[in-house]
Amino acid sequence: MSDHVYKRVEIVGSSTTSIDDAIRTAIAQCSKTVKNVEWFEVQETRGHVENGQVAHFQVVLKVGFRIEPSA
Amino acid sequence: MSDHVYKRVEIVGSSTTSIDDAIRTAIAQCSKTVKNVEWFEVQETRGHVENGQVAHFQVVLKVGFRIEPSA
Amino acid sequence: MSDHVYKRVEIVGSSTTSIDDAIRTAIAQCSKTVKNVEWFEVQETRGHVENGQVAHFQVVLKVGFRIEPSA
Amino acid sequence: MSDHVYKRVEIVGSSTTSIDDAIRTAIAQCSKTVKNVEWFEVQETRGHVENGQVAHFQVVLKVGFRIEPSA
Amino acid sequence: MSDHVYKRVEIVGSSTTSIDDAIRTAIAQCSKTVKNVEWFEVQETRGHVENGQVAHFQVVLKVGFRIEPSA
Amino acid sequence: MSDHVYKRVEIVGSSTTSIDDAIRTAIAQCSKTVKNVEWFEVQETRGHVENGQVAHFQVVLKVGFRIEPSA
Amino acid sequence: MSDHVYKRVEIVGSSTTSIDDAIRTAIAQCSKTVKNVEWFEVQETRGHVENGQVAHFQVVLKVGFRIEPSA
Amino acid sequence: MSDHVYKRVEIVGSSTTSIDDAIRTAIAQCSKTVKNVEWFEVQETRGHVENGQVAHFQVVLKVGFRIEPSA
Amino acid sequence: MSDHVYKRVEIVGSSTTSIDDAIRTAIAQCSKTVKNVEWFEVQETRGHVENGQVAHFQVVLKVGFRIEPSA
Amino acid sequence: MSDHVYKRVEIVGSSTTSIDDAIRTAIAQCSKTVKNVEWFEVQETRGHVENGQVAHFQVVLKVGFRIEPSA
Amino acid sequence: MSDHVYKRVEIVGSSTTSIDDAIRTAIAQCSKTVKNVEWFEVQETRGHVENGQVAHFQVVLKVGFRIEPSA
Amino acid sequence: MSDHVYKRVEIVGSSTTSIDDAIRTAIAQCSKTVKNVEWFEVQETRGHVENGQVAHFQVVLKVGFRIEPSA
């Protein structure tokens, strides 16, 4: 792990089911386009309400991934 | 959504089951007395411990609702 | 509850399953060595990612317990 | 001003025009139902984007008003 | 305490005497109109100065109270 | 809006005219290269001073946009 | 810009007109007595309300200026 | 109060007696050299311990005063 | 004081009397089991309310003490 | 510098040597793929420990760069 | 790393030489009495001044270590 | 140290060499005009980048000094 450089981006996942699922959805989606994702940090947890019920959970994540040296 | 005014109040939901359930309980209870609830933001997540186990999850939420113009 | 003194320590629980489970694991482990645990406060929620999926949820907690007067 | 008690509530004003206008709108609307409003504090400034342009400015305010002694 | 819902409001107490007194004044005044007040949290401590002396202490509190189920 | 994933990036807009204009400039410029921008959040407001006058307002924004599923 | 030392002070500008104007007023006033003002950072935006309308915008700024080496 | 400019400085008062007294001491001392002090805001409360007892309370204050127009 | 190492722990003191007393109680209690306590920092001030009156003040402190080199 | 737009990204540099070196490494690596980097802001400083010694310093930076108008 | 529990404590290291050295000193000292230290996070950097020069750098760290299951 | 009053000002030191050096430069420069400087606290660490390299480290400090009683 010596002298690696990482990048941290913010993504927002949502789910009608649970906070955990919103995180899993966001990580899975993010990993489709970014390689080497290593960790996440929850920044905010929020959601929408419709008809007096929770309609979606939304979780804002910082996601960290290793930048491969460009040679 | 032009020029609406919203209000944001703080409520605390609790649940013996899960964080998600504490949020759902709080939103459902809040919606009994407040109309037009549109979103929530988690402020704090905490809980009580009894006999070395989690007894309750408690979640502090900001809840936003639209104020209807009083004509 | 008059004039008690409490202590608050930070522990980090992890779980491959859910945030709730990471909290329960941490509290149960903490209670093995500390008596009179009364409450917890979530400080940070984060996790590790492996192969594009959430591998562990990690939750940093402040845990409060009553200090028994040393006589 | 001796020994008065004040209350502070959170409202969100929006405007298609400007941040200042979102604040003025919120204060004017709030004053329709609350007496003795004395000050405000901006908590967050945000907005919606449509078609690549700012559609609304939204300003979250804490609004302080004096509670009249109930006799 | 199972599955109760609480509300948290912000009030500002002032006193010419002391910080403690500003808190007591605010809690006593708040309890005149709100039932089931259970706890407070100090958010800010400030004050006014006149003639080079502290004229008032002002304490901003979050005050939590239990919402009674509306049947 | 079910189960969408969003990304949030930070941009800094500047304007010699006003805070509102710095925000509009940043959003318009950002929308040239990013599709589906939906909201912004002001993080910091600052500026440069020259000859004892405000020369530029600078506003740091978080800008949120929807990530289109890559099929 | 090598090895300069700067100082940062807090000033509060007010305006009956707008947030931008409160900033400009504060910077202009500050520059009357301080040389080499180079930047500002908005700390808080607040205001007074009279008769249900915004009476003054108040902006708390950190203002940075270069200290001239005293020889 | 139209269009005044204020300055805010940080001072630290200490007292062997109480938090309130540390604030009063700081304000009284500050007012010896600064005119037009109007308000204070507590930033931090801390203290020194000697022989297992509180030796001093220390309170960090922001103190605001009106700048008189220099004509 | 050269190259000492300190530790900082969190304790919560309570008092039916005053904030100052809650601090003094916590420090005195902490000093019974920890040597070389040198300073404290107030983190949170809160309390319980019973019958519409302040029943306890609770103060969360960080307490710093010097670690004696283990030879 | 009139009306430029900047972007701010988060990177994490690491170094076995020093905090300064972790920053320099991150900036140099970032500049390989991003043009017009103008400033950085340290967000977090942390590190790994192995065998009771600091193994790596890790520094989380916000890095700002000017976006060239796309014609 | 599955389902481990960690603890996080706060220590303050000091050094007459550099910030890096204050961190190394604190980690080395902490590792004398705590096993399995894995990471640190800088919380505050401060220092004492004597005769117009930096006399000591002081760094407040959170230090994380793995708790071994007590069987 | 009984009942002293201190003042805390913000200065920004810069250095092409290191963070430590930026702090030392700022403290030395500050001590030329202010007597009785006793401590500093790092508020922000940032810097400028030129040609893809760190050109300056900039450190924002709060600097505390004892105010001598004016007789």
TrEMBL record, chains A, B, C, D, E, F, G, H, I, J, K, L:
Family matches, as Gene3D superfamilies: Flavin-binding protein dodecin
Signal peptide: none
InterPro entries, per the entry: Dodecin, Dodecin-like, Dodecin-like_sf, Dodecin_bact
NCBIfam families xrefs: DodecBact
Stated name of the protein: Dodecin flavoprotein
Organism this protein belongs to: marine sediment metagenome
